[in-house]
Amino acid sequence: MGEMRAGKGAETGQPRHGTGAPPEGGMDRRRFLKVLGTGTATAGIGAGAPGAFAAGITGLGTALAAPRVLGATHRGVVVESEGEYGSFPVEQLTDGRLPYEYDPDLLRPMREKSTMFSRNVWDPERRNRPEVTESVTRQNLVGGEGKLPNQTRLDYALMAAAWRHASMSGSRDYDWDGLGGQVRGAGLDRMGPWDPGDLHMSWEEATLAVRHAALFYGASLAGVAELNPLWLYSDHFAPSRDDRERTIPVIYDGDRFEQAEDAWYIPRSMNRVIALAFEEDYHAIANSPGRLASAATGNGYSRMAVTSSQLSDFIRGLGYRALPAGNGVGLSIPIAIDAGLGQLGRMGLLVTPKYGPRVRLAKVITDMPLVPSVPIDFGVTEFCEACMLCATDCPSESVTTGPMTYEGPSASNNPGARKWYTAVEGCYDFNGFSCSNCKRVCPFNKPNNSWLHRLIRRMIEGRIVGADRVMVQFDQASGYGVQVEDTEFWKMDGSKSITAREEM
Amino acid sequence: MPELIIGAAAAGSLVLLLRLSESRGLAVGGWKWGVTVAGLLYLVFVLMVVVEFLREGTPKGAMVMGTVLGFPAVVWWVLLGRLVFRRKSAPVAESEGGTNG
Prior knowledge:
- The complex is a heterodimer.
- Chain A is built from 22 helices and 14 strands.
- By secondary structure, chain A is an alpha+beta fold.
């Protein structure tokens, strides 16, 4: 699977090309501009969005309206969808390509033990770092008597409560076989696997229904991908009192589906994954590195837990297996890219067309035979090469200003994918794990409520040579990306806050 | 609402320019009107950009982009005023002869 889905360079043995300008498959700028200019409303034929049922779903909300096809490219089609892409024209890669490349000889499933969260538990270098003993909370909240700007008691209270469901979810919400809600009571689990044909629906329409359910339960974006086993962790980090470094293998094989003592078993039949993205509040992120940004982060984590578990119960109610996960089980970002939610940015985060990097991710792995979404490319790689704002504004200098590579500087980097690797230790340690500066300054972060931003997005997607750097200069000169004081946030009319529910 | 005001002002400006050219007896050709309308549309665009920045709560952006985009508009209109809509003065020799005679 890996070789099949790598870039064309891997197949031919030729040097690899970034997504920046793939000569054999990339879109010629002039052709693209022509496509944009001559695009007409060829509505109703968006990939994976069949007409009649899509129209019915559209009546319930704008998020799943069929994308408007603007034209064809060498690699697929250019589409526009306010609900999915925030009016960003994106190229759907319908020819099977992915908007990233990896070396199949180098890339291996990552060990969960290597992640920063795990290393903080077992790695002596991480456990003894000064940040552990020096409590930022104590310094800011207690020392400042709750009055420090952007670290007030009001801000801390918002942050602490935002993490509520995330803190509780470890053992409950991400349960593999928990039938919560009324699934068992209603007897849904005893009815066998649901056949969409019973309701005269195709599997495309059923997929649309599942994605709609995901949005209904609180996701901001939802896509489906065929599960690439490379993105599953090879082990589950399960420290015990006696063994701080204890791990158990994750076995993706056979038909066993169980969180056993000796291993985690995921059957091969669970070959679909629903990627979920949760928008973080625009104005709260703008407060980074203040506490409000951490509140937005916590809110995202809580919604991840609630929504993925509810969606899993929904799928179980239809008679299929479901495995909800936040950061666990596997890597959320490549899964989300495969599911067509966005592309990888310089800061190492998913950049979505609608919300930029201002999202949190979760996923649900299932054996429900859903129809995969189409990966997209909307010029992120080219823009990130020119922009650099996330790197230059990173207070811990964790984001690189260098080129893409196949290996990173940190023990928590998993080598093999061609990307910008982040020195995650510095990122984690800065300000008590409370920084979203890279999201705050990212030009893709803008809300979708202005025709100006839509115009700029067309220019970004158009890949006009030299324009990206000029746009970044204007972005900076215009005062975007600066920290918004908490006092301004609290003065805002909450109903006008940029949220996932906002009608754009 | 700002869009309506800008649109009305642009339409009003065009009418004023028409009357101005008539009252001054200027023979404004087709291409000159083309350049004038283009200048007017550009000015509308600049004002719309400024309004959009202000609406979004980015006054700095309104100022910066208003200045950057507004400068060509000023140059454009100064040139139009001098080259197209300026009253033609009478020939110097004829004027002097008239005074002395």
